[in-house]
Design a protein that fits this description.
The chain has 25 helices and two strands. With 536 residues, it is mainly α. The chain has a single domain, classed as MFS general substrate transporter like domains (Growth Hormone, Chain: A, Up-down Bundle). It has a two-stranded antiparallel sheet. The radius of gyration is 24 Å and the shape is globular.
């Protein structure tokens, strides 16, 4: 069968199973308000689970915002030969490294802890660790002390950031899966904006250390909300089924979806999917980390990693984390105030992605967005070479527009790709590998950023966009040829397509022969589920 598929690909034909003409192409119906209303409980739990990504966004932009605050510079800054206080490139590297190292370690730890302890327990533990890190930062008086607090806090919210999309991917209905996973980026952008808003308000209302301590302590709010919500947050049904705790899994389904939800059918569908996964796992002999790099799983891992690395290559750390600092260096009047408008526009861009992610699909938004933003980098870099007041205004305007496009396309859709691409047996490990790879690249970018932008170093300003343009071009080529469309596909369909080696550009029109098999399996499993409950 795989050989026939390969021959079809060579002929340039669409992947369609002609021997089963009655199997329909995946439903392309549009999301309506009724879909949101019917799944409001699931959406509410998604927002709760994604509380720690708020801290992720907050922390990632906090340093860039605080570099424009006098109180922070007075406490941690070094005076230059010109008599100006700056946070040295070395100190910026140290503080940036704390975040990236914390997230890297937490991603690796999540791959073990979530399978061992369950999703809920890991999230609760992450909240306490995050709180400890925030308090350590609040009382810091030296760069090493601040480094320790950021490292601890990053490890805490990093656990939630790595686990959240996997948790939600197990719960979200197929039709709303893209929107539910895109909410991760929504919460990250909200965190970035809240960080900028907190710094702006504190710098205007306080003096001295409180200008930076207030924004730091404000980070306690998201983990506090999540800790309170954890009292009603049920465990992942799939994890409970894997642990043979079926009654608890049924209760979790009911709590997630409401009393009218068909628990028997949901249990049957998930059981059928897990049985299929176990068959594949037995064939592979293992579900270890190494399996994530073999065969179709290796292809899945590469796709996810490249999409997330594309975020780093395109320059998200500059626009998301250093935008306020750049505005100040460029001489923008009231840099913190202008940043508020820029982050608000980015949030609006993210909201615009909600209806588009399942209307246009993942592939058009990622590939089209990547190509458009790559061209935008060239434009912004070119304008920045003029170095006059008019070019400065144009640069700020284009960077704001670029941020809007990023959040409306790659920024939001990457999380949908990350949550739905891995096979369920390797989902957490694959996603953890992805976070570690993206974090490693992010670390390299953040280590170079101070030297590229600081006034006492290269002082590139907007011309830094040329640096990001170079790696973005080959990334556009990769995504065009290798990123598949997974909109509306369930686990069995994705498994078949990846196992058969369907080329990325054929995913959209591929008709899966396993649909009838899945229907029969689900019917049998549902009947067995009902029979078991009647016996009990």
């Amino acid at each position: 069968m795989a050989g026939d598929a390969a021959k079809t690909a060579e002929a340039g034909e669409s992947y369609v199973r002609t021997e089963e003409p009655n199997i329909p192409v995946p439903d392309d119906s549009k999301i309506t308000w009724k879909d949101f209303s019917d799944n409001k409980r699931v959406l509410s739990f998604c927002l709760l689970i994604f509380m720690l990504p708020v801290n992720f966004g907050y922390e990632n932009s906090t340093l860039g915002n605080l570099l424009a605050v006098d109180g922070f510079l007075n406490r941690f800054g070094t005076e230059t030969a010109a008599g100006e206080l700056v946070i040295t490139a070395q100190d910026q590297q140290i503080l940036n490294a704390a975040t990236t190292v914390g997230i890297f370690i937490s991603a690796f730890a999540t791959g073990f802890l979530s399978d061992l302890l369950g999703r809920r327990r890991v999230i609760v533990t992450a909240c306490f660790i995050c709180v400890a890190g925030i308090l350590t930062q609040y009382f810091s008086s030296t760069i090493p002390h601040l480094f320790g607090g950021k490292l601890l806090g990053s490890f805490g919210f990093g656990l939630g950031h790595s686990l959240g999309p996997v948790y939600v991917a197990e719960l979200a209905p197929v039709k709303l899966r893209g929107v539910c996973l895109a909410l991760v980026n929504t919460m990250i952008v909200i965190g970035q904006w809240l960080s900028s808003l907190a710094v702006f308000s504190a710098s205007a209302s306080y003096s001295g250390d409180m200008q930076w301590r207030i924004p730091v302590i404000t980070q306690l709010v998201p983990p506090a909300i999540l800790l309170a919500g954890s009292l009603i947050l049920p465990e992942s049904p799939s994890w409970l089924i894997l642990k043979d705790r079926r009654d608890e899994a049924a209760k979790a389904f009911r709590k997630f979806n409401g009393p009218k939800f068909d628990v028997n059918e949901a249990m049957a569908v998930m059981t059928a999917a897990l049985l299929k996964e176990q068959e594949i796992a037995q064939e592979n002999k293992s579900s270890s980390w190494l399996e994530c790099f073999k065969g179709s799983n290796g292809r899945r891992t590469l796709i996810i990693c490249m999409v997330y690395i594309a975020q780093q290559f395109i320059g998200v750390n500059f626009v998301g984390g250093y935008l306020t600092y750049y505005f100040k260096l460029a001489g923008v009047q009231n840099a913190l105030g202008v940043a508020q408008a820029a982050f608000a526009i980015q949030l609006f861009g993210n909201v615009c992605s909600w209806p588009l992610i399942d209307r246009l699909g993942r592939r058009p938004m990622v590939v089209g967005g990547m190509i458009t933003m790559t061209a935008g980098l060239l434009i912004i870099g070119g304008i920045s070479t003029l170095n006059n007041p008019a070019s400065l205004k144009a640069t700020v305007a284009f960077m704001t527009l670029w941020g809007f496009l990023y959040q409306a396309t790659l920024g939001a859709v990457a999380y949908a790709v990350g949550g739905e691409t891995p096979s369920p047996t390797h989902r957490q490990k694959t996603y953890s590998i992805n976070i570690m790879a993206a974090t490693a690249v992010s670390c390299a970018v953040l280590q170079a950023m101070p030297y590229l932008i600081n006034p006492d170093q290269a002082n590139l300003g907007g011309k830094i966009c040329f640096v990001f343009f170079a790696p973005s071009v080959p990334m556009c080529v990769y995504l065009y040829f290798c990123l598949p469309e997974m909109k509306g596909r369930n686990y069995v369909e994705l498994e078949e397509m990846f196992q058969n080696g369907v080329p990325a550009r054929q995913f959209k029109n591929y008709v899966c022969h396993g649909a009838n098999e899945l229907t029969k399996t689900v019917a049998e499993a549902k009947g067995a589920e009902v029979e078991n409950r009647e016996m009990v």
